[in-house]
Structures are given as structure tokens and as C-alpha cells.
Amino acid sequence: MQSSKPHAALLSSPGMGHLIPVLQLGKLLVTQHNFTVTIFVVASHTSGGEWEVLRSSMTSPFCDIVELPPVDISGLIHPGAAVVTVISVMMRESKPALRSAISAMKLPPTLLIDDLFGTESLEIANELGIPKYVYMASNAWFLALTLYVPTLDKLVEGEYVEQTESFRVPGCRPVKPEVVVDPMLDRTDQQYSEYLRIGIEFPKADGILVNTWEELQPQALAALRDVKLLGGLAKNHPIYPVGPLTRPVGSPSSRTNKQLFGWLEKQPHESVLFVSFGSGGTLSYEQMNEVAWGIELSQQRFVWVVRTPTVTNRDAAFFTSGTGADDDGPSNYLPEGFVDRTREMGLLVPVWAPQVDILSHPSVGGFLSHCGWNSTLESITNGVPMITWPLYAEQRMNATLLREELGVAVGPEALPSKKLVGRDEIAKLVRKIMVDEEGFGIRAKVKELKRSAEKALSKGDSSHRALSLFAEVCEVQQNA
Ligand code: UDP
């Protein structure tokens, strides 16, 4: 019998950072609104390892998860193509598989929700005659820039990064040229045309869900809704801030990691710095050495998720982790004697750690992070102040938001992607958020945001209301 509640098909692009918020959205639609949810995931070589664990823990009883068959895109991209290009091409090539998987479903979906890289699949919803939405699993300021980039494309001559003035995204905090998102770094690269296309396709959706909350980004959200500002671009397309949607505490790997949690249990309250660069971030060898020295000089306790450094001087990688296979052993690349000297002070975790469980532990008092949006939300919702270390994607914007607008983070003076950050500066930053009086205000501010996030998600408050409104609209559309 046909369910009277909506059946949402959610499409996630590959990569843990994309999957996690899609899974959380799916789970809430099921648990709070009785939707049926099928999540389509585009497989990649990140599948395996942690993804398998995550999937097995999420499949039942919440959603069906369908992994679309891997696509061979080797002939379609040049070697060394940027991540945005790789993901965009994978999503494009997966469209036929998505179409046939949907048409083979016994209970067809009544709406489609694509993520940032899935906007080309909105046309499948058109073919089926069902409503279509986009889920921006990041922040509202980045969403505003994404919607505005087709306009900037017409207004700005030359490379964005060579401009001397910030970009005025109407109604929003201006975007400094050095913090633009990766696809805007080089306008001649394919990743730029893919991003531009995404900016054009977003407003074709019936609405946009975004993983933030009203009280965190009132200015950007107001701009997105104001017809005289960005609302002109997303006219009649409601914006639903439904966040923060984060992975819950209690991941399966946290239960097996007895040594780590046993050690954390013995440390004083908020005394441990957590260091991690997301699901795929890596540092150069030189930078890793400076980070190690900086932590040691700060004399603070730490848990550091380590990965073999990149061979080139270019920080940042993607699609490398989640399999536990890419670590040479920390003593091969950390400063000589570091492991022995810091044995009492900290723990090194190779490749992957149960991040949310660590951040929620009372002994953790700071997070040196690459500022991926999931990591950012996980830090805020656990009241942990941050040191910003943006590497790729929209992380430079996230870092700016955290430091300049929200006041919950400190960071190096120069961007780590531009210049080697030295050990003394790192030690100072660590001490600032962990022990110095100067950092007390930052800690107080992040605790305030933690409470604001909890409130937003509670029944009747902003994000809960936004998701309820979205659910109501979907039901009305279904029964129309
Ligand atoms: N993550 C984790 N353990 C790790 C590295 C990452 O659990 O060792 C999780 C992290 O908690 C977050 C996600 O992977 O939920 C990373 O997403 P984010 O948006 O922060 O960054 P990305 O990896 O997409 O750059």
C-alpha cells in the first residue's frame, strides 16, 4: 500500500564529509516526520573502512542506503584534476545509474533531495514530476557565495585571487579574495565551470536546506531571503536552516578504542587539544614538523590524528582516507624523539579517530582543525574552541566566519596554504585557547553557541521548526 507520508530520495556525493550530514538529515526525516527515506550514495574508492562501519550502523532502522555502482571516469578527466572536478564528473556519470535505481523502486520517491554536487540530477525529479530540493551541507555564507558566483562571473575581470578588494555578496559579509573557495582559485580550470554551473542550478530547486541555524548566521540567512538582495536569485525558493545536523556520539569505533578513551578519562577537565584535518587532509612534511614542535613547546596535552605527510609542499588531499591504509608510522615523519618525549603528554592516532566522541569528552578543551563544516559544527556543539587551519574547499571561509564573525577561534596570521606556519606561532595559539586568560572569552563564546545550537534543535525552536515546515510542505505537495 502506498504510504501517505512522503518518500524522500536523498543523493550524496562521495566522501565522508558529504555522507555524514546527508545521513543525519535522512535520519531526522524518518524519526521526527515519519518519512520513508532512501539514500543514494555514489561509490568511490573512499568506500570501505570507516564508511562500512558507518553504513552498517545507519542502515537500519532508519533509511535504506543504496550504493550506486562505481563509475570509471579515468578517460574523462586529466590526471591531477581538482577534487571538485572529480566529484562533479563522478556525479554526472552516475546519473543513469541513479535514474534506473529510482525507476526500479517498488515505492517510488515523492521528492528528491540532492547535495551540493548532485544538482545535475534535479532533472530526474523533473522527469518524474516530483518536487526537488538541494541540501547545502555547509554554511549560509558559502551558500550565498555559491548563488552569487554567476553574477560575480560577469562582474569580475581576471582572476578572483588577484583582486585587491573583497567581493560584495549582497547583504553578506564581504569575501576576501584570499579566502574564496577552491574552485574560484583558477577561472580557467574545469572545477570553476563546474562550480559556476552548480550556482546556476541551485535556484532551479524548489527550496534549499542548509546545515546551519538562524541564530548562528542571521545576516547571511536574511540576505538569502531578501528579494532585493540574494532572494532575487532564489526567488520563491524557501531556505530551510535545519542544522546543526551532526553525527551522534557513540560511533562503533569509539567503543573499540579503549586505549584512547582510557587515557582521556585520566586527563584533567578541558586539558587536551585535539588535532585533526578531516577525512582527507594532510600536511606537508615541513609543516607537520612545525606542528609537532609547536604542540610540544606549548606543553599541552594532545590527541593528534596523524597521516603520512604529502610529498610535495602542497597541503591538503582528499579521497585518501577512511581505509586506514595510508600511514607510514609517525616516528618516520615526526621530529626525532617527539614520540618518546611526548609519551606522557599525548596520543597519536593513525589516519582516523572517532572525532565526535573525542570532541564530546570532558577532557578535551581545544581543537586544531582544518575547519571542514562538519568538524566546525561538531566543535561548536561540544563547546570546544578552535585553532583554524583551513586547507581546501570552503574551509578558508569557514575559518573566517569562526574567527571574525563568531569569535570562537584563533588562527595563524598567514593562511597555512600560503606560508609555512612556524612552531612558535603554533605554540602561542595552542596556549591561547587552552590556558591563557586571553582565550577565556573565546571559550565562553563557544559555550554560548553550544547552547544556542541545542536550543535551535529543540522542539518548537528555529531548526526544528524549519524542518517541520519543510516536512509539511512536502506532505502538501504530495497530496496536491
Ligand atoms: N572524521 C572522523 N574521524 C577522523 C576524521 C574525520 O570521525 O579521523 C569525521 C568528522 O567527525 C566529520 C567528517 O569526518 O564528521 C569530516 O567532515 P568535514 O566536513 O569536517 O571535513 P572533510 O573531511 O569533508 O574535509
From TrEMBL:
Assigned protein family: Belongs to the UDP-glycosyltransferase family.
Top-level taxon: Eukaryota
Pfam families, alphabetized: UDPGT (PF00201)
Gene name for this UniProt entry: LOC107424817
The enzyme's E.C. designation: 2.4.1.-
GO molecular-function term, one example from the UniProt record: UDP-glycosyltransferase activity
CDD domains registered for this protein in UniProt: GT1_Gtf-like (cd03784)
Keywords from the named record: Glycosyltransferase, Transferase
Protein name: Glycosyltransferase
Keyword Transferase on entry: yes
UniProt key word Cell membrane: no
